[in-house]
Specification:
CATH class of the largest domain in chain A: Mainly Alpha
Number of domains of chain B: 2
Distance between the termini of chain A: 51 Å
CATH superfamily of the largest domain in chain B: HUPs
Bound molecules: flavin-adenine dinucleotide
Mean pLDDT of chain A: 94
Order of helices and strands of chain A: HHHHHHEEEEEEEEHEEHHHH
Radius of gyration of chain B: 21 Å
Low-confidence stretches of chain A: 1-7
Number of strands of chain B: 11
CATH topology of the largest domain in chain A: Butyryl-CoA Dehydrogenase, subunit A, domain 3
Helix content of chain B: 25-40%
Structural class of chain A: alpha+beta
Largest interface: A-B, 19 and 12 residues
Strand order of the largest sheet of chain A: 1-4-5-8
Helix content of chain A: 40-55%
Structural class of chain B: alpha/beta
Low-confidence stretches of chain B: none
CATH superfamily of the largest domain in chain A: Butyryl-CoA Dehydrogenase, subunit A, domain 3
Largest sheet of chain B: 9 strands, mixed
Strand content of chain A: 15-25%
Shape of chain A: globular
CATH class of the largest domain in chain B: Alpha Beta
Number of helices of chain A: 11
Oligomer: heterodimer
CATH architecture of the largest domain in chain A: Up-down Bundle
Distance between the termini of chain B: 52 Å
Shape of chain B: globular
Number of domains of chain A: 3
Strand content of chain B: 25-35%
Mean pLDDT of chain B: 93
CATH topology of the largest domain in chain B: Rossmann fold
């Protein structure tokens, strides 16, 4: 274990109870022993982490925040955030796979699903028997998610869905896809089984980072979805999805935090070992300043995100705290990993070390589940509203 | 089938070990502890046997109060119950440890008694066979394969000499090594259930003081390598050094 792991592991954090520490220790050990050695290959060969997903399912890590009665591990959102952080610390691809599955592909069914939907899908998702995906983004509807052009038209007890969704994480391998559609009176959400006739795989994205993650275009052609698979009332989909994103953002923040911590895990021992001008890098003031700034940013991001997760566990709204955590963590992740590369010089730039991969992986955190610009909009709107 | 596994808490092999101020113990600060890896293999094998044949798995640990953490891990992996022989400090040689363990195992239902072949800190490799002797059980050490059927165990004992295939009537004791089983990670559910499983705490008998540790010293730092030359020209000198100085060639 790296020296820093010891610091973060012994520093008591008030939000973390015994149960949080236990699950963190378990996922930390698994991530370091099993996920870390696989990470470079996932990135280089663009392979999806099927084995890891199966092992995580076995351990109960694909349903961390859901109750045992529905197949989950019976822990809370903060525990789930710790799992994402520890996975991202060694592998971005693995962490986004679990995050998209849990907070986007599964949580909406847990929060807003009918009993029947829970019966049919939630158990399989929460136990990890199948993966979940979430399709909001379209070619013409990104930040402006309301601009959705995917249509759902009522046909008796069913709906007929047509449209194209892009950038759907886990889109290829998911058993279910939760999607937003345009209906007569607004945005309506549905659960589609991936095997429903008329759903086909479009382009698999070739990406800067998170290269093993499954980012898929999905094409819906006359897909018949039973009304019982509608999530929430007609026209009520948008609000619900935004609430999903509020909590989902905390997990993207956790991913950024994990990547930043992972880069420091590598750069710190490097700074202690590497010598130039007869000194270790860690003896140069310029490097010490970088290290301190990295630690301060990581620490701040960690507390901000744990706070947001703890608020969610108290049943409070997390739009504000979640946006702040996501925005801050994703931006400091880029800065921290940039510093890690700088500290490591040419080695940091090469594939001999994982920091260049972390750099590429972390960029997504400033884009997915609301770009940084959108987070600033969300935060400032809430601020302005509060004084009106 | 009732299986008892003895397990020890040891410093993580990845931990940086330094000698503490008393020059008799290691610095505990910042050192992570784990179940000694061979013992963890024994726990895993016990669980696999239980899953295949039914029965119970009990872990027994002689260790400091903090060893509860490693005991809980074994329970989280799936062991049914645990006995924690609480060690309040002092030195014990292998025989004293074996006597303490045999003391709590005696009288408990036990078809199979498993140990790691050695702990990774003390490296004595003695406790398992001593406990077996004290309990009058047949024992096979260095077991890399273990199958149970009809009240008998067929084991592969692997050593540098080769592999011996041995059949033993149960109850019997075995010390196990790598290759026997791959320890599982606990499930989250297992961690939660572990808290409700029976954990018997017994104060270990005070050490008799027959063995004292006078001084603990870190191993001498390894010397750097030496380059004796380049290409073919270096071969003669290299062979001479390897055979005469290092004595690894004859
Ligand atoms: C790897 C990956 C995985 C993804 N996974 C999923 C998924 O599982 N499900 C899903 O539905 N989507 C997913 N997405 C899509 C992601 O959420 C969108 O890419 C993101 O919301 C931004 O939308 P866009 O790409 O269309 O960019 P645009 O909306 O076109 O934005 C382009 C730029 O304009 C800025 N901008 C836009 N509007 C404003 C404004 N009002 N004020 C100021 N600036 C603005 C943006 O901040 C950005 O800088 C994924 C994307 C990636 C790359």
């Amino acid at each position: 274990m790296s020296p820093l792991a010891d610091i973060t592991f012994s520093e008591p954090i008030p939000f973390l109870q015994e149960q949080h520490l236990e699950v963190r220790e378990l996922i930390h050990r698994y991530a370091q022993e099993q996920v870390k050695p696989r990470a470079a290959r996932l990135d280089e060969e663009k392979v999806f982490p099927h084995d890891t997903v199966a092992e995580l399912a076995e351990m109960g890590m694909l349903g961390v925040p859901f109750p045992e009665e529905v197949g989950g591990a019976g822990l809370d959102y903060l525990s789930y955030i710790l799992v994402i952080e520890e996975l991202a610390r060694v592998c971005g691809t693995t962490s986004i796979t679990v995050a998209a599955h849990t907070s986007l592909g599964t949580n909406p069914i847990y929060q807003f699903g009918t009993d029947l939907q829970k019966e049919k899908y939630l158990r399989k998702l929460a136990t990890g028997e199948m993966l979940g995906a979430f399709a909001l983004t379209e070619p013409g509807a990104g930040s402006d998610a309301r601009a959705s052009k995917t249509t759902a038209v009522r046909d008796g007890d069913d709906w007929i869905v047509n449209g194209v969704k892009v950038y759907c994480t886990n889109g290829t391998h998911a058993g279910t896809v939760i999607l937003t559609t345009k209906t007569e009176n607004g945005i309506t959400a549905f659960i589609a089984e991936k095997s429903f006739p008329g759903i086909s795989n479009g382009t698999l994205e070739d990406k800067l980072g998170l290269r093993g993650s499954d980012t898929r275009e999905l094409v819906f052609e006359d897909v018949r979805i039973p009304d019982e698979n509608r999530v929430g009332e007609e026209g009520g989909g948008f609000k619900r999805f935004m609430m999903t994103l509020d909590a989902g953002r905390i997990s993207i923040g956790a991913m950024a935090l994990g990547l930043a911590q992972g880069a420091l895990d590598v750069a710190l021992p490097y700074a202690i070992e590497r010598k130039q001008f007869g000194q270790t890098l860690g003896q140069f003031g310029a490097i010490q300043e970088r290290l301190a700034d990295m630690a301060v940013k990581i620490h701040t991001a960690r507390l901000t995100l744990y706070h947001a997760a703890a608020l969610k566990d108290e049943g409070r709204h997390v739009a504000y705290a979640g946006s702040i955590g996501k925005l801050y963590a994703s931006e400091i992740a880029m800065e921290v990993i940039d510093s890690a590369i700088q500290i490591m010089g040419g080695n940091g730039f090469t594939r001999e070390y994982p920091v260049e991969r972390m750099f590429r992986d972390a960029k997504l955190c400033e884009i997915g589940e609301g770009t940084s610009e959108v987070q600033r909009l969300v935060i400032s709107r809430m601020m302005l509203k509060s004084v009106q | 089938m009732d299986i008892i596994v003895c397990m020890k808490r040891v410093p993580d092999s990845a931990a940086k070990i330094t000698v503490a101020g008393d020059a008799k113990s290691i610095e505990q600060d910042g050192v992570d502890h784990v179940i000694s890896p061979y013992d963890e293999i024994a726990v895993e094998k016990a669980l696999q046997l239980k899953e295949a044949h039914g029965g119970t798995v009990t872990v027994v640990c002689l260790g400091v109060a903090a060893a509860t953490k490693e005991i809980r891990q074994a329970l989280a992996m799936g062991a049914d119950q645990a006995v924690h022989l609480k060690d309040a400090g002092g030195n014990r040689g292998p025989l004293e440890i074996a006597q303490a363990l045999a003391g709590v195992i005696k009288g408990r239902a036990c078809d199979l008694l498993l140990f790691g072949k050695q702990s990774i800190d003390a490296d004595n490799g003695a406790v398992g066979v001593m406990v077996a002797r004290l309990l009058d059980l047949p024992v096979v050490s260095l077991v890399a394969q273990l199958d149970v059927a009809d009240g008998r165990a067929t084991v592969h004992r692997q050593s540098e000499v080769g592999t011996e295939v041995i059949e033993v009537t149960l109850p019997a004791a075995f010390t196990v090594q790598r290759g026997l089983a791959e320890p599982r990670y606990p499930k989250i559910k297992g961690i939660m259930q572990a808290k409700k499983k029976p954990l018997e705490e017994i104060d270990a008998p005070a050490p008799a003081g027959t063995m004292a540790l006078d001084k603990l010293e870190p191993p001498a730092a390894r010397e750097g390598g030496r380059i004796v030359g380049e290409g073919k020209d270096a071969v003669g000198e290299l062979v001479r050094l390897l055979s005469q100085e290092a004595k690894v060639l004859s």
